[in-house]
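A.,

Following up on our hallway conversation. C-alpha cells first:
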C-alpha cells in the first residue's frame, strides 16, 4: 500500500511540475513574458498605438490613444498658474478611466524646467465619445526669469513634456522621451 501511495504522490507532483517546468523552459530567455502579456509589454516599450500622441490635433484618423484638440486656455499671472482645456476622443471600444496624469514642462530650446502639469481627480471617457479634460499647471519664478532673459520679446515658446506619467484603467504608462507640445503663447 505504501508503494502505491508513493507512486501516486510522484504522479501528482509530475502532473504539476512537468507542465510548469515546460513553460519555464519555453520562456527561459524572457521570463517576464510568463507574467506580463505581450500587449502590455508593447505599450510599455512604445510599440503600440496606445502610446502615440498625434501632432495634428487628432485629424489623422489613425485611432491613436491621445487625440487632444485644444478648446481654450486661461492664465493667472498673479498665482503663476494656468489651465488648458482639451477635447479628448476615446477611439477604443472600451470605456477609459484616467486616474492620473502628470508631467514636467521644459523649454525645448534650452531644456530648462518651467513647471509641472497634471489633472485633478478621475476622468471617465466613454467609448466613442468626446470628453473635455482640464489640465492645470504652475510655473516658477525661475521660469519667468528664463522667459525674460532667454526669450525677451518672444510672444510664444516651444515646450516639451518630460517624465509624462498617465494612469489609465489602473495601468500606469511612463514616457521617458520628451514629447513636443509645440508653441505655447506667453501672454
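Then the amino acids I'd put at each of the 187 positions:
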Amino acid at each position: 500500500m505504501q508503494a502505491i501511495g508513493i507512486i501516486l504522490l510522484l504522479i501528482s507532483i509530475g502532473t504539476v511540475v512537468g507542465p510548469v517546468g515546460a513553460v519555464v523552459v519555453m520562456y527561459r530567455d524572457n521570463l517576464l513574458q510568463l507574467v506580463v502579456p505581450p500587449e502590455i509589454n508593447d505599450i510599455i516599450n512604445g510599440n503600440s498605438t496606445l502610446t502615440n500622441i498625434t501632432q495634428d490635433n487628432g485629424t489623422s484618423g489613425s485611432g491613436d490613444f491621445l487625440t487632444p484638440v485644444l478648446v481654450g486656455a486661461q492664465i493667472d499671472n498673479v498665482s503663476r498658474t494656468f489651465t488648458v482645456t482639451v477635447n479628448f476622443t476615446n477611439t477604443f471600444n472600451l470605456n477609459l478611466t484616467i486616474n492620473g496624469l502628470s508631467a514636467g514642462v521644459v523649454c525645448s530650446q534650452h531644456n530648462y524646467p518651467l513647471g509641472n502639469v497634471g489633472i485633478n481627480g478621475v476622468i471617465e471617457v466613454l467609448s466613442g465619445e468626446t470628453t473635455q479634460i482640464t489640465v492645470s499647471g504652475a510655473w516658477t519664478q525661475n521660469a519667468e526669469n528664463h522667459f525674460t532673459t532667454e526669450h525677451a520679446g518672444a510672444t510664444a515658446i516651444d515646450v516639451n513634456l518630460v517624465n509624462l506619467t498617465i494612469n489609465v484603467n489602473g495601468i500606469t504608462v511612463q514616457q521617458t522621451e520628451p514629447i513636443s507640445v509645440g508653441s505655447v503663447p506667453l501672454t
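Confidence is low (pLDDT under 50) at residues 50-64. Curious whether your intuition agrees with the design.

B.
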